[in-house]
Design brief:
Length: 201
């Protein structure tokens, strides 16, 4: 398993980054929160995990070992694959997930696209106390990857929301007038918060 990658950031997108290490460029999928910590040309180290399928090998990167470990643990739940686990970490911090599972907060879990009431109950049942106790944490930085408004919608769709939901969320946060449409990082974060705060069945 590739446990970490240290190298120079070649490119930061809305759902993945490319790190050059040892003459190779690694495309690493990550959450907006993790991508927010990366800057083109910077030397960084990401905790990683390699997901191997019959037809693909996909590398996922995280700001720290804790987030990677939670990502891997989430996939032990029936029906939770890497894409859904990544979406869960895009909506909730590791501690947020610990609180939701420990408190049986099904509403919080169903804020993640692709998780309904049955899925939320299965996650709570199968994870139990395996995530450990929640601890106090500071606010996570807002993502600042570059791109256009259409890229923000595409990133949300990639995380599992329907295109209409994604477009409506972007329109909603821009209509509030507090954001610059050119600041796609802020728009993406606001849209994630809006979607995460919407009730799901």
């Amino acid at each position: 398993m590739i446990a970490s990658v240290r190298g120079r950031v070649e490119h930061v997108g809305l759902d993945a980054a490319v790190l050059e290490a040892g003459g190779l460029g690694y495309r690493i999928h990550a959450t907006p929160g993790t991508l927010a910590t990366l800057r083109d040309g910077a030397e960084v180290k990401l905790a990683t995990t390699l997901v191997v399928r019959e037809d693909s090998m996909t590398l996922f990167g995280f700001a720290d070992d804790e987030e990677r470990d939670v990502f891997e643990l989430l996939q032990t739940v029936s029906g939770v694959g890497p894409r859904l686990a990544l979406a869960m970490l895009a909506v909730h911090t590791p501690n947020g997930l610990r609180r939701a599972v420990a408190g049986e907060d099904f509403k919080a879990l169903t804020r993640v696209p692709g998780i309904g009431d049955k899925g939320a109950r299965r996650i709570v049942l199968e994870l139990g106390d395996r995530l450990g106790p929640a601890i106090e944490e500071g606010a996570r930085p807002a993502p600042t990857p570059a791109g256009s408004q259409a890229d923000v919608v595409a990133a949300l769709v990639g995380l599992g929301w329907a295109a209409k939901q994604a477009e409506a969320a972007v329109d909603k946060v821009l209509a509030e007038g507090d954001l610059n449409a050119a600041d796609t990082g802020a728009v993406l974060r606001a849209a994630l918060q809006h979607l995460g705060g919407s009730a799901r069945g």
